[in-house]
Amino acid sequence: MAPAHGCVYSATHVAGQINLSTEHLMEPVTFSESGGIRYLHFGTELIQGAMRIRDPDEIYLEYNQQMMAWLLFLETKPGMRVAQLGLGTGALAKFQYRYCPAVKTTVVELNPAVIVSARSMFFMPDDGPKLETHQADAKQFVKNKKYFGKFDAVQVDLYDAICDGPAASSLEFYKGCFNVLKGPGVITVNLFSRHKSFELNLKNICEAFDNRVLLFPESHDCNVVAIAFKGPKLEAEWKDVSKRAKLIFEKTGLPTNKWVSGISRENARQESKLSI
Questions:
Q1: Is the pLDDT of residue 67 over 90?
Q2: Quick check: 243 and 67 in contact, CB under 8 A?
Q3: Buried b vs exposed e over 137-157: b needs ≥16 C-beta within 10 Å?
Q4: Does 57 have pLDDT greater than 60?
Q5: Are 150 and 144 in contact (CB under 8 A)?
Q6: Rounded CA Rg of the chain
Q7: DSSP state, 13?
């Protein structure tokens, strides 16, 4: 069976389980380990996240790494805020906590067991000045006017146990994501390219963001990360974006050297320069 977007199939056995009862029926949170990698599952073999045990702050999965693509377009600075919708193993929150010390990350995760496991099994830091965690529905979070215009970047990775496309796909949801962004602002969204949900999500992202959308090439596990923009038109020579990518690689180890060539090839009318 082919891997699903947001998830990959694992042959390893389930090695642990967390299941907190709440007013909502939540998927059980389970774990497995193989070859020094710890995996997160929601009660099935589908992988919802992964961590290299000897390097817990590394972003292990390729599509997760690409969710950090907002760094190519925004300079980190004191007071900067990033919203992470969907927690998983906390890979993005941990990475930002370590490598983007000026940034405050706001995590929104509906399942309390996922929050517990991110801290107990995947070493995400406790809340503090650089990190806050909300046990809440991301679809409701982006409707809340108190968050409108509050975030420089938004990262969306919302999948359930079935992984039947993103758990939030509507035009209303993506318009909410647009509303909580500042301008300039950047959103990254993990999509499932070989599923009928892909066209719907891409259509709604394009409509919410006035067609200012770029796509990464499909990763080996069939994920495609979309990048969308809010604010003034962005124009830059790819060589300048490449310089930025090299700097990010030197500071963080993210494989950004592959990103620029992939994005420029994948998107029509972007081959010679970035203009969106």
A1: yes
A2: no
A3: bbbebbbeeebeebbbbbbbb
A4: yes
A5: no
A6: 18
A7: P
Secondary structure class of 225 (helix, strand, coil): strand
Q: Kindly give the interhelix angle for 238-252 and 259-266, rounded to the nearest 10 degrees.
A: 140
CA separation, residue 264 to residues 187, 223, 258, 267 (Å): 18, 18, 11, 6
Confidence of residue 78 (pLDDT cuts 50, 70, 90): very high
- Adjacent-strand bridge partners of 31: 16, 40
Which tokens belong to 177? Answer: 């994501």
Beta strands 49-52 and 103-109, pairing class: unpaired
Helix, strand or coil, per DSSP, at residue 54: coil
AA identity, residue 189:
V
Strand pairing class (151-156; 80-85): parallel
pLDDT, tens only, 8-40: 433 343 445 444 434 456 788 999 999 999 999
Helices in the chain by DSSP H: which ranges?
62-66, 91-99, 112-120, 138-141, 171-180, 197-208, 238-252, 259-266
Phi, psi for 81 (deg, rounded to 5): -130, 140
Whole-structure pTM value: 0.89
